[in-house]
Every structure is written in structure tokens, then in C-alpha cells.
Specification:
With 136 residues, the chain is an all-alpha fold. The protein has one domain. The protein is built from 7 helices and no strands. Helix 2 crosses helix 6 and helix 5 crosses helix 6. The longest helix has 20 residues. The relative contact order is 0.21.
Length: 136
């Protein structure tokens, strides 16, 4: 998995993705909710929420699990690769993708997580929790 530096999170061009699949949105909202409950993210680390949620560790481990995740959400490999390539071109001016299922799904979730946190536009855990509850 390509791990982006923390400072990158402040500089990215975030596209509001109105086409994020509802199943992915629900899964990631549930993941965020669990992370709030487990205190992975707090008011004290608000600047690093995206890092702790979607960059500190793999979201999906293993090629088979990644392929099953794509199937579950009805996403083709090409659709996922395209999203990752567009994101990288928009933000870095080049594509640095090592296309295997595990890498691609983790980059895809990284991007979707960024879009979701941008949509939430929360400055506190309470605000994020309210967004999660309204959208779950």
C-alpha cells in the first residue's frame, strides 16, 4: 500500500463524489462510528482523523479479501483503478499505482474516506458523530 504523508491530507484536491456507492458509504460510516467509540479518533487528534482512519493501517488485508470487497460493492477492478489514477493525477501530476487488488482497494478506500470526511466537514467528534448518525 502506498502511504501518503500526513501533510498531504491538507493539500489534496477533494472532489465531492456524488457517485460513491451507498454500500461503501454505509460501511465507511460504520467504520468511522466504531473508531469514535474505540477512541481511535478524538477531538485531540482532529487534524489527523483521515490518517488514523484510512492511512495508518491497511483497511483490507490480502488479495482475496480485496477482490471479495470489490465484488461485494459491485465495483470492477477497472473502475477502482480509474478512480485511483484520476486522484493521483489531480493531486500529484502522475500515477504511482501498483495494481494489485489489495493495494487498489486500500487506495480506493483512502480516497472515499477523504471524500466522506470532507462531506462531514466536522470540527469535533460530536459533529462527526452527528454526521455519521444522520447518514447511517
Amino acid at each position: 500500500m502506498i502511504i501518503f504523508p500526513k501533510q498531504h491530507q491538507q493539500e489534496v484536491k477533494i472532489k465531492k463524489n456524488k457517485t460513491m456507492k451507498q454500500s461503501i458509504k454505509q460501511e465507511l460510516l460504520s467504520y468511522i462510528d466504531d473508531s469514535i467509540i474505540d477512541r481511535v479518533i478524538t477531538n485531540d487528534n482532529q487534524d489527523d482523523w483521515h490518517f488514523h482512519l484510512f492511512n495508518e493501517d491497511y483497511y483490507i488485508i490480502g488479495h482475496y479479501n480485496a477482490e471479495q470487497w470489490f465484488k461485494h460493492h459491485k465495483i470492477s477492478s477497472w473502475e477502482a483503478i480509474k478512480k485511483v489514477q484520476e486522484y493521483q493525477m489531480d493531486n500529484f501530476g502522475k500515477v504511482n499505482l501498483h495494481p494489485n487488488p489489495e493495494n487498489t482497494v486500500n487506495l480506493y478506500v483512502y480516497i472515499c474516506g477523504e471524500e466522506l470526511l470532507s462531506e462531514a466537514n466536522a470540527e469535533t467528534i460530536q459533529g462527526l458523530k452527528q454526521f455519521v448518525n444522520q447518514n447511517l
